[in-house]
Design goal:
Elements: E1 4-5, E2 10-15, E3 21-27, H1 37-47, E4 64-68, E5 70-71, E6 74-75, E7 80-85, H2 92-95, H3 107-114, H4 130-145, E8 150-158, E9 161-162, H5 168-172, H6 181-196, E10 203-210, H7 224-233, E11 238-243, H8 254-257, E12 261-262, E13 265-266, E14 274-275, E15 278-279, E16 284-290, E17 300-303, E18 309-312, H9 323-351, H10 355-358
Antiparallel strand pairs: 1-2, 2-3, 3-7, 4-7, 5-6, 8-9, 8-10, 10-16, 11-16, 12-13, 14-15, 17-18
Helix pairs in contact: 1-4, 1-9, 4-9, 7-9
Length: 378
Amino acid sequence: MSNVFGELLRVTTFGESHGPLIGAVVDGLPAGLPLDEAAIQADLDRRRPGASELTSPRDEPDRVRIVSGVFEGRTTGAPVALLVANEDVRTADYAAWRDCFRPGHGDWTWWKKYGVRDWRGGGRLSGRETVARVAAGAVARRLLERRGVRVAGQVLALGGVVARDPDLAAAAASPLRCGDPRAERRMAAALRKAREAGDSLGGIVEVRALGVPPGWGEPVFGKLDARLGGALLSLGAVKGVEFGDGFALAVLRGSKANDPLTPRGFASNRAGGVLGGISNGEPLVIRLAVKPTPTLGRPQATVDVRGRARTLRVPGRHDPCVAPRLVAVAEAMTALVLADAALLHDARRRAGPDSRRRSAPRTRPPRPPGAMDGRRSR
C-alpha cells in the first residue's frame, strides 16, 4: 500500500474515517521553521464538515495536535507528527450494508485487491482521509511562505453553474469557495435542489500558485506538472486535471497556443506556468474535474460480497457536492509538491559542479502589462 508521498519532503498519512484518529508525519523539514497548531488549524477549518448547511452535517471540530518535531514554536529538524481525533463517528449508519458495495466508491476494487475492506464509511478511501493531507499541506505552506509563494484555490463551476471573472479573495470568504457572488447564489440553489432529490453534483476547482520562481521541476520523469497531476489525481473525487488552457489548447493552432516571449517576459500564460516540466515564473494555474458525490440519498443498484443483486441506500451524512471542501485539499497537495520541488531544486543546485556560479540570486523577468495575477484570465 502506498501511504508515503514526496522525495525530500516526505509525508506519511494514516487513519480511517471511523477509526479513533487521522494523522500525518512530515519528515525532511528544515530546522527553525516557525510552526504552531493555529497555523495548521486555519486550513483544517476550511476543509472541515458541518461548517455550512450545504456540506456534510458530520460535526467534526478537527482540532490538530502537534506531538513531535516542534519546540518553542519552531521545527527542530525531526519528523513533525500531527494528530486529529475523529469525534463524531456513526458506524451504525453503515452496519446494515456492510456486505454491499457502494456504487461509485472504491469498495469493490479494494475488496478485490486486498480481500478485506473497512465498510465503516470507506476506511482509508473515505474523504475523511484528506484531513491528514490538509494538515501536512499547512506545514508545507510555512516553507513556501518564506520563499514568497502563495497557493490559493476556488470553485469555478458547480452543477453546471459557471463563475464569471471570479476573484480569489472573494472565494476565500465564500462558503462555497466561489469568487463570483451571483454564481454562488445559483450554485447554492442547485445544491439544495439536488439534495432534496437525493442526488449530488460535481464541479470544477481551480488552484493557483503565485510567486513560484522559474526553475522548479525535475525532467524528465519528475516534471513539475507530472508531479502535481499525480498528487491531485490521488484525490478520490478528482477525475481530470489540466494546466493553463489545458484541453482548450487541443483545438487551437500553434500560433495561438504558444506563449510569446518578449523582453519584458511572457505575453500570456496559456501553458499555466510550466514549460518542459519546469516552472517558468508565471502563476501556476491548475483546474480539477470533481465528480459528483457517489453516496446518494436515493436507491442504487449494486451487488453484495456473494455477487447477489441488491438495492442500496446508505443513510450516512454526505456532501451534496465535495468541490467546495476539496479546495483546501487541492491547495494542500499543491503546496506539498511545490515545497518538495523547492527543496529538490536547492539540493541539485548545491550539488552541481558550477554550484558557486549558480548560487547567485536570480531575478524574475518583469511582468508585461495584463499578465495573469490572482484573477482568472486566459
